[in-house]
Amino acid sequence: GAGVSQSPSNKVTEKGKDVELRCDPISGHTALYWYRQSLGQGLEFLIYFQGNSAPDKSGLPSDRFSAERTGGSVSTLTIQRTQQEDSAVYLCASSLGDRRRTEAFFGQGTRLTVV
Amino acid sequence: AQSVTQLDSQVPVFEEAPVELRCNYSSSVSVYLFWYVQYPNQGLQLLLKYLSGSTLVKGINGFEAEFNKSQTSFHLRKPSVHISDTAEYFCAVQAAGNKLTFGGGTRVLVKP
Question: What angle do CA B32, B95, A42 make, to 5 degrees?
Fold first, then answer.
C-alpha cells in the first residue's frame, strides 16, 4: 500500500480483556517496528521484526504482550488481560531492511483506552 | 546501546522568531540521526536525516540540523517559525539492528 496502515484507529476495552492491534507495512518493507506512546511521554520501543523473526523484543513490558508477523507483511500486537496502564497510542513503522538503514515510515497509530 | 536526550521538553516561541531544538545522543558505534515531527493527533513524519556527508542537513518546511560528532549533537533549527510549526519534535538515532531510539520529544508552541 501507499503507507503504513494500522487498525483499528481507536479501541476501547474493559480491563482484563485481550486486544489485538494490526499493522500493514509498506509493501516491500522487510523491517517492522512497534512503539508505544503514552500521554505526555516519548516513544517507547516495543519490538522489531526483520521478515517474520523478531531479533529484538527487548521492549515488550511484560509477558502479557506478544507480537507476530506472518508472510513478511502483516503484524499483530496482542495484549492479554489488559490493564489501565496499557492505555496509550501504539505506533507501527516499517523500513526497507536491516542492511540499508533508511528511515522508518509510521502509521497513524491505534489509540487504546482501557477502562 | 544508544540513548537520546532532548534537553527541552517545551519551547514556546513567537511567530516569525527563530527556534532551536537541542538533541544529544550517546552511542559506542556510528549512528544515523533523524528528526521526526508529530502534528496534533497525527502520526510521525520525517523532517530530515543525517546518514553521511555534509554535516548540515536541510529538511522539509525550512528546517535544518547540524551533526556535530565531537559534541554528539544534532540540533534542529528554523530561522522563522509559523503557527503551523506547532507540534512535537522527536530526535532519533539508529545503529546496527535498525532499531530507532527516540528522545523524549520537544513540544513547540508557536504564539502569534
Answer: 80
pLDDT of residue B1: 80
Rounded alpha-carbon distances, angstroms, from residue A17 to A35, A84, A113, A115 = 21, 11, 12, 10
B103 pLDDT band (50/70/90 cuts)? Answer: very high
* Averaged pLDDT, B102-110: 95
- pLDDT tens-digit profile of A2-16? 799 999 999 999 999
Chains A, B: CB pairs < 8 Å: 50
Cα–Cα distances in Å, from B97 out to A4, A95, A98, B6, B12?
20, 12, 6, 23, 36
Given an 8 Å threshold on Cβ–Cβ distance, is A48 in contact with B51? no
